[in-house]
Specification:
The protein has 166 residues and is α+β, with helices and mostly antiparallel strands. Among the domains are: 76 residues; 29 residues, no CATH class. It contains three helices and eight strands. A four-stranded antiparallel beta sheet has the order 1-8-3-6, with no helix packed on it. It has a four-stranded antiparallel beta sheet with strand order 2-7-4-5, with no helix packed on it. Strand 4 and strand 5 form a beta hairpin. The chain is extended and about 90 Å long. It starts with 5 loop residues before the first helix and ends in a 5-residue tail after the last helix.
């Protein structure tokens, strides 16, 4: 059996510790990964809570583009007044309302509000507009729906389709 001195064992142990330390990324002079960059700042609040004029867009300090809704006028006010001016300076939309309101704000708009409850960004799409010919659609759908029950709506529609002068 070969005799191993104490200094050989210590040196071998130190070498093993150095190899393990380098493999695990520990020790001096070993490069480590840079820390992750900080997260981006949160977007501006999508709430317009006080009277004033607000710029809409993507620049810092501007409110995001989208549909904003309010519950109507604040307590004690006769109406909620609002105005949208586009980037060319033309009035695109405005109203004085006593009830719920929704407005679509686009990039470059200036939005002015007075005496309104908070305007909150609504991420759902705006409701579809009701076409100008809606009364005819309602008569048509009522006639189709009531034909099975024997309604008199069908003869009325037939009369509408007959030429004048009969």
């Amino acid at each position: 059996m070969k005799h191993v001195s104490r200094s050989t064992v210590v040196a071998a142990g130190a070498g093993l510790a150095l190899v393990l330390g380098l493999a695990l990324g520990a020790g001096s002079g070993v490069a480590t990964a840079d820390p992750a960059p900080p997260p981006p700042p949160p977007p501006p609040p999508a709430v317009i809570g006080i009277d004033g004029t607000y710029q809409i867009g993507t620049a810092p300090g501007q409110l995001p583009v989208g549909g904003y809704e309010t519950g109507g006028p604040i307590a004690g006010a006769n109406a909620c007044n609002w105005l949208v001016v586009d980037r060319r300076g033309a009035v695109r939309d405005n109203a004085a309302t006593v009830a719920h309101a929704r407005v679509e704000l686009q990039d470059g708009d200036a939005f002015t509000t007075k005496n309104c409850q908070a305007w909150v960004l609504n991420t759902s799409p705006p409701p579809l507009p009701i076409p100008d010919w809606a009364p005819f659609a309602a008569v048509g759908s009522a006639a189709v729906g009531s034909a099975a029950t024997g309604s008199v709506a069908i003869p009325a529609i037939i009369l509408l389709l007959l030429p004048v002068g009969l």
